[in-house]
Amino acid sequence: MNPAAEAKLLRLLGLGVRGRGAVVGVERVREAASKGTLVLAVVAPDVSRHSLEKVLPLLAAKRVPVVEGPGAAALGHAVGRETTAAVGVTDRNLARGIQEMLAEASLRWPPGGASDADVSGSD
């Protein structure tokens, strides 16, 4: 991910967490996905396989778009933690803004996967 896109993504996620439009951590992301309130997930690429196995199948089953974010330390720092494996966006407008920014930077992940889902549905 290019540095400008990464910085913008981290700022947006930080704002989302402070505004209660995002949840932090694998368990909170799983809870939001299970409840149907999760609109987008940002996952650190350097997390353990175990963490990925806990969250990615559920996100795929719920058709939640997944974006590969920066490393766990940078992702955690942006949301007030030392590290975090995942941040889940529950605010539809924030998710739309993140997807639009990433589309401009051509950074969707995984290619052809659930990230192609549209988050612009009605609120």
Automatic annotation (TrEMBL):
Residues 13-91 form the Ribosomal protein eL8/eL30/eS12/Gadd45 domain. InterPro entries: Ribosomal_eL30-like_sf, Ribosomal_eL8/eL30/eS12/Gad45. This is Ribosomal protein L7Ae/L30e/S12e/Gadd45. Keywords: Ribonucleoprotein, Ribosomal protein. It comes from Gemmatirosa kalamazoonensis. GO terms for cellular component: ribosome. Gene3D superfamilies: 3.30.1330.30.
